[in-house]
Request: fold
Amino acid sequence: MPLGLLKYGFSKRHPAPRALPPRPDLKDSYDVVIVGGGGHGLAAAYYLSKYHGITNIAVIDKGYLAGGNTARNTAIIRSNYLTPEGVRFYDESVRLYQGLSNEFDFNILYSERGHLTLAHTDASLRTMRWRAEVNQHCGVDSELIFPDEIAKLAPSLNLSRDVRHPILGALHHKPGAIARHDAVAWGYAIGAASRGVELHTRTEVTGFGIEGGAVTSVVTDRGTVRCGAVLQAVAGSSSRVAALAGFKLPIRTVPLQACVSQPLKPFLDPIVVSGSLHCYISQSSRGELVMGGSVDPYSLYQQRSTLDFKEGLMANMLELFPFLSGVKLLRQWAGIADMTPDFSPVMGETPIRNYWLDSGWGTWGFKATPVCGKRMAETIAIGKAPDILDPFRLDRFERFDLVGEGGAASVGH
Amino acid sequence: MKRQRQRLDVGARIDRGQRLAFRFNGKSYEGFSGDTLASALVANGVRLVGRSFKFHRPRGIYSAGMEEPNALVQLGTGAASEPNLRATQVELFDGLEAASVNCWPSVNFDIWSLNDRVSSMLPAGFYYKTFMWPTGLWMRYERAIRAMAGMGRTAREADPDRYDQTNAHCDVLIAGGGPAGLMAALAAGRAGARVILADEQNEFGGRLLSEPEDGETIGGRLAVDWVADARAELAGMAEVRLLPRTTVFGYYDHNFIGLIERVTDHLGGAAPEHLPRQRMWRVRARQVVLATGAIERPLIFAENDRPGIMLAGAARAYLNRYGVQPGEKVLVFTNNDDAYRTALDLNAAGIVVPAVVDLRADPQGSLPARAREAGIEILAGHGVVGTKGRLRVTEARVAPVSDGAVAGPARTISCDAIAMSGGWNPAVHLFSQGQGKLRFEEARGVFLPGNTIQANRSAGACNGAFPLAVCLAEGTEVGALAAADAGFGAPVLALPETKEAEEAPMEVVWQVPSDRPPGKARAFVDFQNDVTTKDVKLAAREGYRSVEHFKRYTTTGMGTDQGKTSNINGVAILASALGEAIPAVGTTTFRPPYTPVSFGAFAGRELHEFYAPIRRTPIHAWHESHGAVFEDVGQWKRPRYYPRAGEGMHAAVRREAIAARSGIGILDASTLGKIDIQGADAAELLNRVYTNAWSKLEVGRCRYGLMLGEDGMVMDDGVTARLAEDHFLMSTTTGNAARVLAWLEEWTQTEWPDMKVHMASATEQWATVSISGPKARNLLAELTGDFDLSPDAFPFMSFREGIVAGVSARVFRISFTGELSFEVNVAARHGLAVWTACMTAGEKYGITPFGTEAMHLLRAEKGFIIVGQDTDGTVTPADLGMDWIVSKKKPDFLGKRSLSRADTLRSGRKRLVGLFTEDPKTVLDEGAQIVAEPRDRPPMKMIGHVTSSYFSPTLDRSIALALIEDGPDRMGQTLHASMPGRTVPVRVTEPVFFDPDGERMRG
Reply:
């Protein structure tokens, strides 16, 4: 029991540190303005202030802190990707995540559950074997396992052969984990704020001042501020904010829905994904089933949910877990996903000098929060993207040097 | 069996003639028809029904409806067991069995209530601040914490019940059948509109059901009689559908509404077989009327969570609707006039009301006056500042309060229940779900419907109109307006007169002060998740200022009750802690569903055989009767191989493949996608979607085509035949048939609308029997006399029409096996007959049916690709060594531009090659990675992977296809493939292993 809680419990005044300071007035000028106060933007602010000595930073967000996809994702962390570039990148993220609670002294409830990607056909078994091989060659713990081993990890799964899509095998990724998504953002925010970073929520960016090909100021609904550099980290609105700066992104924006059940006594330890059945499920530390499916088949910027999403998803859930019929769905919601053609993110330089981009996070942004924050901070601090980000640069779409991760996406897109 | 000691002898809407036996926490009780589980428990004097999530504090029944945070039960046992049901919503049936959730060993003695002893150390968000040190131990802590997660348990067997789904359209959908909803239904129904009226209760009437029988009157009739009349009139209207026991749970775009009807839940084991348990209605409504009522707001005071403390409206409901005493001495605590109704009704029923504690300094309405007349003591300007009692409340401490502070000494009032009310919150959930904006009204501290973009109107209590007369008036008005907007004229409807008591204004009090030292006496805001006022203030102090942060940090409103009684109080206390106005802090977004809905209802009938319909070819029955082992290809079942007695897959595939190479093999190819393309621009369409040229293809000839995405990557392939100048038949891969058709439609509809071309799927209209092998011509000759089969007259890559085995057929001379092959296409209904004819006539040639596994092997020997196996969406024609099929002359085709991009042209791309293992017996794993320099440990540089791998009986050695960086430049090189636990040396070779010149298939 740490001292803080003991003090809180025994002292009559119940002291508590102010973790998140109230919004200050905007200053005239910042070294770095980070547009987007979600997990990625806050992480970049944190690493800039803690490791690069840059603290004159404003994080600007239209809504409340971490209220976009950081608040809406299903909190799955994994590195079992298909391309070596992807595996290397996400593996660094997993390693950072593992130490994050201690780094913050704020428990993000990181829970290593193991991650099972089910294969229902020979073709998907082949892909799983391929992914396992790529992962192992990159030093990442993934292996192809078969129903007898799956039964040990997830005894509640319906492993009968006598179903429409029998489970033939699975890619088992032991480091697969879930974490408390809000806590990740709060941890970064608290750490950044304690080093002087200003958090400007409910502040909308409406334009950018660009001189001689370089960004020099950010226009907001609370006034204009000069800036040395800009980081754009606005998942779900990447194209719209880039348009304010005058460049285009190869991004299609679609809703991604998710839902949770009522809390139940734990019966499912690993995270279970079925690409063929378009669904994924994990049981949270509160006992809720956290579930998602494919992205919606149309472009939309609105965070609203639909009925047919649940119908399709639940039919698939009951195929995997037939005993869940009587379990009740508690809440559903939607986030907005910026899909790229190759299912990999876009990071680094833009056509505008000192305007750095962190976008294209589709349905895979949360798991990259630490590595992205750390590496984007490094990029801004030294003015150049490090090697690990190089495969994800924006101009790859002109040259067509893609990082094809379609095969490692959890579900259909 | 215990006596129902808290049951009154007369009155109420229960049927005392129908006794129902039930069990709760292992004990037997009895209730009456018309009871809920909650009312029956109260009738039997059961106070303690559950434990809270975090501190496992003892909790009692708090409400009489869907807002219940405490009384969660596990209903039933075995496969039909349901977790986390609210006892207040479970209608009692004979033989019902229920138990409290989340307590051990019992609800009376719960070991986990130890948490409560250290609760001061476990404030909101405590878990973010601990369990981190020493590093790495968290996962051990977590295992222990995880054991405490969750409320109820899932059944562990499949649910035997059925859930149905249905669709409906209507002019006016009315959510809520209380006075406002009934009036709206009458107004719209009499105007002639198609109306659906849904109410979550077992009978219509809303709050009128909970009032005393001799209370309010409507149109000179007792309120409940007026309800019965209205219901009878509505039931007689042909265009009106009444749905009791039906919750409107979701309000989606364009007035698309989700309803869940509990069809037989209330019947228990007596449910008739033919009825589903629940039915989901998907309704598209022209107009929506929201008459969803209001939810009583609790007063937040110190020690407010003991069993026996309940909402005043609920106490009235138990008394008047269920004939149950909520207690023997019921203290009433309020800031408004409505709770006086509870006091008066209790008093009239002979229950002791020691006092009405009113936070208002000088309550002067007609209801307080009546209470005084009845001799009930009114403690004006007082508040409950603390309570006592372990498993149920035994006394209240009452003190004068003013200006938010205790203003005098407290006195103790003995009681066994407290009925309290902090006013009513309009149920704006559905309005908000439908993207409506809420506005805040200071005077009553309520959120009300504001602007909306959807076609809906709110009426009655959910619109802030609490008096009965206003409810009826608003219901009438919006019902008529909704009908008018849906195209129906003015209804004939007079507003009935009402007789009801007038109410004086309430006084908004978000938090009742206490004389106990802060920190000693907890005041709970969220009962299920044990969030106290202190927790809310802690969140504010720590900087969790946004409503969403407060909610997520403290878990307020995250329980199964979705914060119906806690959200607004929490927001108000947060606002006061932040020194901001409530509207500035805002309210959380209301999200569907309104109340939790079961997975089974969402899935409906789409289970088992209806889950993902199986597609079978016309020849399926033959395959089955001949022992085929099937594999799923898309939705299709395809024979994978036909094992003979004692044969495993490898032996069967070997036999089938050898037969196709040496005699005749026969394959059911009916699943391949077939798209019929017609029109003057049909050839031009093919020019645009395939990489090669089609204009000059002669009628009667076939051509192989590769289809690319806009990114230049191979998307599909297949053979297309020209049946006539303006008529083509395209074949696609089995799995891609629908996608290719959609692709063609998308381009012709959105980009090339001027093209004169139409297309339709013909996959299921045709059965395809593919015969392959050196004797194929001999066999076909026996089955047709219609056309010349000689190589000159019927060359490779052409087609003929004629009679085969007595039926009209299209015969294509194309080959995927590399052998002399004919694909005989006949009308689907003749497929089995033609197949059987081939088998009979082919017997002398040793005709052998072969499955997909042998087919894959045979094509791999020829180096023919399978899209999706040897390609993965990142492979160009050049990567496959198929430049020959990419036209250099055509001005454009889909994907052409991408083929000239820098990265598409660069060296170092992965390209298709063949691989021979050094040991010819070793068969590589598909998906195995290729490295140039094997090392003992990762990371290793991967330069490619195996896409197809087989043992070839024809070559008597293993073969593999692989995508390898600069593969064709590595011919003859030795590389290494990783296999489980070892690496295998492989030699790079050409990807065509057999008959490279194609003499056999052209012969």
